[in-house]
Every structure is written in C-alpha cells, then in structure tokens.
Write a structure and sequence with these properties.
52% helix, mainly alpha, 3 helices, 79 residues, globular
C-alpha cells in the first residue's frame, strides 16, 4: 500500500476536493483515513470528513491502523 499512497500523494493537486463512492465494506474509510494520515505525515494539510462513522469509530480505526503498523515494524513508537 505504501507505494500506492506515495503515488497518490505526488499526484494530489492543492485545494482539490475528492468524493469517493463505493459499495459498503469495500475499504473506503480505511483508504481515505490512511491517505489522510500519510499525507499529513509528509507535511500536507488535510481535512477529512466522514459522514458514516462516529468519531469514536474513526478513532478506533485509526488506533487499529497504528497498532498494525507498529507490529509490522513500520513505527518505532506510538505517541
């Protein structure tokens, strides 16, 4: 996924709005949340809206992503 994320970050045009539509359970939230986090990690400004999940669900998903990344050796420590 890292190569795909990097390619997308390089191709994003400033001040662009994206709308992603797909069937339930296809990974829209996961993809968008990971893209937003990777873009922010690379110093990009990101605004992310999700109208399907509560903030508690979004936080749980983000924590799960970071735990998986840490367990895979992608991060040295969690802050």
């Amino acid at each position: 996924m890292g190569g795909i994320v990097f390619a997308v970050i390089i191709g994003v045009v400033a001040q662009t709005v994206f709308l992603l539509l797909a069937a339930p359970g296809t990974g829209k939230t996961t993809l968008c949340q990971q893209l937003a986090e990777e873009m922010a990690r690379h110093g990009k400004h990101v605004v992310y809206f999700n109208f399907e999940m509560s903030k508690e669900q979004m936080l749980a998903k983000a924590l799960s992503y970071h735990r998986a990344k840490k367990n895979a050796g992608g991060e040295k420590s969690m802050k």
